[in-house]
Design a protein that fits this description.
Elements lengths: L1 E4 L6 E3 L5 E4 L6 E5 L7 E3 L14 E7 L6 E8 L7 E5 L12 E2 L3 E5 L6 E3 L4 E5 L6 E3 L6 E3 L6 E3 L6 E3 L6 E3 L6 E3 L6 E3 L6 E3 L6 E3 L12 E3 L6 E4 L8 E3 L14 E4 L2 E5 L9 E4 L12 E2 L1
Parallel strand pairs: 1-3, 2-4, 3-5, 4-8, 5-9, 10-12, 11-13, 12-14, 13-15, 14-16, 15-17, 16-18, 17-19, 18-20, 19-21, 20-22, 21-23, 22-24, 23-27, 24-28
Antiparallel strand pairs: 6-7, 7-8, 25-26, 26-27
C-alpha cells in the first residue's frame, strides 16, 4: 500500500493504481484526493493530534477548485476545521453514504475508568481519556491531547503536555492545564482553574471559582479566554492581562456591548456585577486591575 502524505498547503493528492493510504495532519489545508477508491484506499487521521472519532466526522457533497488544475472537482468533502485541520475532498465519490468507518484510520487513545473511591490515574504520552468516578481522585494526563473527567468529589486534574480538555464535575476541584492550549471546565463547586502555558479557555461553571490564566507565570503573553454565564457565582480572575486576555459573556441575552456592564473599582480590584440586586452574588472580580483599563476589547459579547 502506497503512503501519500499531505502538507499544510492546499494540494491535489494522486494515488497509484493500487491501494493507497492518504495521510493528513493537523493544520492541513484544503486538499483534494483525486480518483479516490472507496474499496481499497484509506484516509489516515491517526496523527491528527486531536481526539477525533468516526462519529465526529461531518461530510457533504461539494464542488471545489482543484489546487493544481484550473478545473473544479465534485465529491464528498470532509470538514476537519473544528479540530484544527482543513478539508478533504474525495474526487469522484458521489455519495456521503459511500463513506464507512473502515475507510479511516483514527487516532488511538487510552481509556481509563476509576472507581467509587480514591483513584490515582496516570496517563501515557499519547492521548488519554480518563473518568475518575466518585471519590477524591487525582488524574494526570501526562503528554498528548487528553480528555480528563474528574467526576464527583474533591479532585485534582492535571493536563500535562498537549492541548487538553479537563472536566471537574461536582465538588471543589483543582484543574491545571499545564502546557498547551487547554480547555478547563470547573463544573459545580468552588473550583480553582490554572490554565498554565498556552492560550487557554477557562469555564468556572457553578460556584465561586478562582481562575488563573497563566499560573505562576506573570510574564506570559498567552491570550486566555475566561467564560462566564448566568448563575456562575462569584468568580475571581487572579491574573487578567489587559490587551491579551478576554472575558466571554456571549451566554448573556441582555448584554451585547460594554455599556451594558455594571463595573466598579473596589480597592485594587475591579468587580463586574451581574446579580439583579447588585450584591455581587453573580460577579467577576479582576484582581489588581484598574477600571480605567477595562474596555470593550476585553470582552466577547
Amino acid at each position: 500500500m502506497a503512503r501519500i502524505i499531505g502538507t499544510t498547503g492546499d494540494e491535489a493528492l494522486i494515488g497509484t493504481a493500487g491501494a493507497d493510504e492518504f495521510v493528513f495532519w493537523q493544520f492541513s489545508g484544503g486538499d483534494v484526493v483525486e480518483e479516490f477508491d472507496p474499496d481499497n484506499d484509506i484516509i489516515d487521521l491517526s496523527d491528527f493530534g486531536r481526539m477525533i472519532s468516526w462519529d465526529d466526522l461531518r461530510a457533504n457533497i461539494a464542488t471545489v477548485n482543484d489546487p493544481e488544475d484550473p478545473e473544479t472537482v465534485t465529491g464528498v468533502l470532509i470538514d476537519l476545521t473544528a479540530w484544527g485541520g482543513g478539508t478533504i475532498t474525495l474526487d469522484g465519490v458521489t455519495s456521503v453514504r459511500t463513506l464507512t468507518e473502515d475507510m479511516f484510520r483514527m487516532p488511538e487513545f487510552h481509556t481509563t475508568q476509576g472507581s467509587e473511591g480514591f483513584d490515582l490515574l496516570i496517563g501515557q504520552n499519547g492521548m488519554d481519556k480518563m473518568f475518575g468516578g466518585s471519590g477524591d481522585d487525582i488524574l494526570d494526563g501526562q503528554g498528548g491531547d487528553d480528555e480528563l473527567h474528574a467526576g464527583d468529589g474533591k479532585d485534582l486534574v492535571l493536563g500535562g503536555g498537549g492541548n487538553d480538555t479537563l472536566y471537574g464535575g461536582a465538588g471543589d476541584d483543582t484543574l491545571d492545564g499545564h502546557d498547551g492550549d487547554d480547555t478547563l471546565h470547573g463544573g459545580a463547586g468552588n473550583d480553582t482553574l490554572n490554565g498554565g502555558a498556552g492560550a487557554d479557555r477557562l469555564i468556572g461553571g457553578l460556584g465561586d471559582d478562582t481562575l488563573w490564566g497563566d499560573f505562576c507565570n506573570p510574564d506570559a503573553q498567552d491570550e486566555d479566554i475566561f467564560v462566564y454565564a448566568p448563575g456562575h457565582g462569584a468568580d475571581t480572575i487572579k491574573d487578567f492581562q489587559d490587551g491579551l486576555d478576554r472575558i466571554d459573556l456571549s451566554a448573556f441575552d441582555g448584554i451585547s456591548d460594554f455599556s451594558d456592564l455594571s463595573a466598579k473599582q473596589d480597592g485594587d480590584n475591579v468587580v463586574i456585577d451581574f446579580s439583579p440586586w447588585g450584591d455581587g452574588g453573580d460577579s467577576i472580580t479582576l484582581e489588581n486591575f484598574s477600571l480605567a483599563d477595562l474596555g470593550a476589547e476585553d470582552f466577547i459579547f
